[in-house]
Automatic annotation (TrEMBL):
Limits of the PsbP C-terminal domain: 62-243
Name of the protein in question: PsbP C-terminal domain-containing protein
Domain of life (superkingdom): Eukaryota
Pfam families according to UniProt: PsbP
InterPro entries per the UniProt record, alphabetical: Mog1/PsbP_a/b/a-sand (IPR016123), PsbP_C (IPR002683)
Species name: Physcomitrium patens (Spreading-leaved earth moss)
Single GO cellular component term: extrinsic component of membrane
MF-aspect GO terms: calcium ion binding
Length: 248
């Protein structure tokens, strides 16, 4: 880009690119978060650096960012949590199939199950009772969360139809429900609820949003009820950070 073109950029865009370039260069100079020094520097102004998505590479304030531009969402999660290896393996397999030079089979391979998460993260060495995941599923064109009513009404409907339907041998209780809208005009419903079954008792926070391409995004963070007091603040940070994004 020449000087004239740079001057024609909107000041905010030019400033953002300048800062991002500076931070990226600094981060590379510091190396792979040597002894946590890069994260410590970035944590001095977490809002700025999170806005620049530097936390995709380096934790800020104890959290890293999951940025899925191909699926159109992002959120932050505890830096010590790791990705679900099964999902990563399946993603690699899908990528290999898409890059294959062989002729396509007569019978097309089955698509990803709609209930299977796009991503999932949790503490290493655990069995998945404590985790956060995102599921993306198609919905009818023109569907909005508001058509389910306000957040409380929608929450009751979701719990009855999807979380603990009649005959499932599960009992769900809605604790709280709220709505927010981002700068792009996307509406998010956040539900806090518990689910009790014959062999488990979980506390969940879920965030729902519908994209302009008629897809329902669901971020779900769950923990055993016995751990809720330890993770409730983490879950709030995770759920508040979830939003839909366009390609970058």
């Amino acid at each position: 880009m020449d000087v004239v073109a740079a001057m024609m950029l909107a000041p905010s865009v030019f400033r953002r690119r300048f800062i991002l370039g500076t931070i990226t260069g600094t981060a590379l100079a510091l190396g792979a978060d040597f002894l946590g020094s890069t994260s410590a520097i970035l944590s001095l102004n977490p809002e700025l650096f999170r806005g620049l998505r530097v936390d995709v590479l380096y934790p800020i304030g104890g959290y890293k960012r999951c940025l899925e531009t191909s699926q159109g969402f992002e959120f932050i999660f505890p830096k010590t949590w790791v990705g679900d290896q099964t999902l990563l393996y399946r993603a690699v397999q899908r990528g290999e199939r898409e890059r294959s030079l062989d002729l396509p089979p007569i019978r097309q391979p089955s698509k990803r199950r709609l209930t299977e998460p796009i991503v999932a993260f949790g503490p290493p060495g655990t069995l998945g009772e404590l985790n956060v995941s995102v599921v993306v599923a198609p919905v009818a064109q023109g569907f909005t969360l508001e058509k389910l009513g306000n957040p409380t009404e929608a929450g009751i409907t979701i719990l009855k139809r999807s979380i603990a339907p009649e005959g499932s041998n599960k009992v769900a209780e809605l604790i709280d429900a709220a709505a927010r809208r981002d700068d792009a005009g996307v509406t998010y419903y956040t539900l806090e609820y518990t689910v009790r079954g014959p062999s488990f008792y979980r506390h969940n926070v879920a965030v729902y949003a519908v994209s302009s391409s008629a897809e329902l995004y669901t971020l779900s963070a769950q923990s055993p009820e016995t751990m809720w007091s330890d993770v409730r603040n983490q879950f709030k940070i995770i759920s508040d950070s979830f939003r839909l994004v366009s390609s970058i």
